Automatic annotation (TrEMBL):
One of its GO terms (biological process) is shikimate metabolic process. It holds the Pfam family Shikimate_DH. Residues 379-450 form the Quinate/shikimate 5-dehydrogenase/glutamyl-tRNA reductase domain. It comes from Dipteronia dyeriana. This is Shikimate dehydrogenase (NADP(+)). InterPro entries: Aldolase_TIM, Aminoacid_DH-like_N_sf, DHquinase_I, NAD(P)-bd_dom_sf, SDH_C, Shikimate_DH-bd_N, Shikimate_DH_fam, Shikm_DH/Glu-tRNA_Rdtase. Residues 258-336 form the Shikimate dehydrogenase substrate binding N-terminal domain. It comes from the Eukaryota. CDD domains: DHQase_I (cd00502), NAD_bind_Shikimate_DH (cd01065). Residues 499-528 form the SDH C-terminal domain. One of its GO terms (molecular function) is shikimate 3-dehydrogenase (NADP+) activity.
């Protein structure tokens, strides 16, 4: 399907204006109990930049079909899609089926632009209208699977069944069990010979809603208000249009993202998408909720999937999926950045965590000691305690060792701490032992565990009474910015370094590696301040 082959129901949809790079419409679901409330929401949808509204009449109380539909369709400030979703297809309507279909026929006669009819009753509905459909009205025949995403062959057969009904537009919505499910939907979208809405529901399906623009989907949905969604995993209109710059996504847009689990807390999409936009770089950066790195890399081997940041807990698994590894990343045993080399498609692994974290710690030490930036590293000779021996822990331990610090690795399991400590000529202890560990004053502490991260913000990896022996405390967590660990460290008189500093320093490096252009540092800083 080519972008130009999609039949549009209304000539007033300005699809190609303002340098827009795709034909995928942005549809705002409207759900309310009264007609007046729906009209207000439609006005908001228009203000926010939606192309059309899906009027979910199954949410209306005291619904009077002829009167209510006439008002909603005639007074809508945008083209309309009428949906009257029954409970058996995931909606609210639980009444007589013939009454429901009569309301759909009324909407069609009143001139709605689009009408959603479920596959289960499509033949029955088409028989009832006897070919008397206004040319303007386009019928979307839909199928919703709330359990999983079947194979390409199974969904392909489903699409053929939908097409056989006489549908103007095919809609298939499945549910994500794994992020790789989206790849099957993209494959079907690209090869579809008819206009198709292909979406994967749930948090792992978010990329299907955004990349619909890249793969030629007929429309995608964006909610008017956060949390008020018509299907799981739906982004807001604001995120879709502003954060992900949806209208600028084209078939040649390069895909980047942050690979982690959990990933909903990540601020990375805000930073990188703003940087890409500022640089005029044709790229998108997505939050990628990945269960298996190997499966993800295998599923998205297209040359357009070009770069990833890695976060907890996938930094070590990411390294195993690289074709080539930077020597420093190999030494650390974890990557934080992966780039597909354009010349041969090989995956290159790097670790830039230690650059960001160590630079932030050194800067804070120099500021507190009054030393000039040109002097030797203020970490040299210091006792540097690293909590955690995962990917970030390895990066910090290696970075401290490189700067001449005496490294102590504290981990929940002693064996893992010992392996890392031996690599950097340091000492290993357990986290339990760390509470009473104070061989000297003025130590440096770096937390790389996830203890204290949202949503468990009241947790801390080390009791307050143990913090009095440290002159500086760094926490790699940046959501929240003020972790309990940092608050209590400050109360004990220590200099504190926020995880945001490590995050921002490594963001500068990664933006430059992804784009080949100088990072817009002030824009990145401003966006981070706005979103923390």
């Amino acid at each position: 399907m080519t972008l130009g082959s999609i039949p549009l129901a209304t000539p007033d949809l300005k699809i190609a204006d303002g340098g827009r790079k795709n034909w995928t419409l942005v549809c705002a679901p409207v759900m309310a109990e009264t007609v007046d409330q729906m009209l207000v929401l439609m006005g908001k949808a228009k203000q926010l930049g939606a192309d059309l509204v899906e009027i979910r009449i199954d949410f209306l109380k005291n619904f009077s079909p002829k009167n209510d539909l006439n008002i909603l369709i005639k007074q809508a400030p945008l083209p309309t899609l009428i949906t009257y979703r029954p409970k058996w297809e995931g909606g609210q309507y639980d009444g007589d089926e013939s009454t429901r279909q009569e309301a759909l026929r009324i909407a069609m006669e009143l001139g709605t632009d689009y009408l959603d009819v479920e596959l289960k009753v499509a033949h029955e509905f088409y028989s009832s209208i006897q070919g008397k459909k206004p040319e303007k009205v386009k019928i979307i025949v839909s199928s919703h699977n709330y359990e999983n995403t079947p194979s390409v062959e199974e969904v392909g057969n489903l699409i053929a069944r939908i097409q056989a009904t006489g549908a103007d537009i095919v809609k298939v919505a499945t549910t994500s069990v794994d992020i790789t499910d989206n790849a099957r939907m993209f494959q079907l979208l690209v090869h579809s010979q008819v206009p198709m809405i292909g979406l994967v529901m749930g948090e792992r399906g978010l990329m299907s809603r955004i990349l619909a623009a890249k793969y030629g989907g007929f429309l995608t949905f964006g909610s008017i208000e956060e949390g008020v969604i018509s299907a799981p995993g739906q982004p807001t209109l604001v995120d879709l249009l502003d954060l992900y710059n949806f209208k600028q996504i084209g078939a040649d847009t390069k895909v980047h993202g942050v690979i982690g689990k959990p990933i909903g807390h990540s601020k990375s999409p805000h930073l990188y998408n703003a940087a890409f936009k500022s640089l005029g770089f044709n790229g998108i950066y997505l939050p990628l909720l990945v269960d298996s790195v190997a499966n993800f890399i295998n599923a998205y081997s297209s040359p357009d999937f070009v770069g990833y940041s890695y976060t907890i807990p996938h930094k070590e698994d990411g390294l195993k999926c690289c074709d080539e590894i930077d020597p420093i990343a190999k030494e650390i045993g974890a990557i934080s950045c992966m780039i597909r080399r354009p010349t041969d498609g090989k995956l290159m692994g790097y670790n830039v965590d230690y650059l960001g974290a160590i630079a932030a710690i050194e800067e804070a030490l120099r500021a507190s000691n009054g030393a000039t930036p040109a002097s030797a590293s203020p970490l040299a000779g210091k006792l540097f305690v690293v909590m955690g021996a995962g990917g970030a822990g390895k990066a910090l331990a290696y970075g401290g060792y490189e700067k001449g610090a005496r490294v102590v690795v504290a981990n929940r399991t002693y064996e893992k701490a010992k392996i890392l400590a031996d690599k950097v000529g340091g000492q290993a202890i357990t986290l339990a032992e760390l509470k009473d560990f104070h061989p000297e004053e003025g130590m440096i502490l770096a937390n790389t565990t996830s203890v204290g991260m949202k949503p468990r913000i009241d947790d801390t990896p080390l009791p307050k009474e143990s913090l009095k022996n440290y002159s500086l405390v760094f926490d790699a967590i940046y959501t929240p910015k003020w972790t309990r660990l940092l608050q209590e460290a400050q109360e004990c008189g220590a200099t504190i370094v926020f995880g945001t500093e490590m995050f921002i320093n490594q963001a500068f490096v990664q933006v430059e590696r992804f784009t080949g252009l100088p990072a817009p540092k002030q824009i990145i800083r401003d966006v981070l301040v706005k979103n923390t």
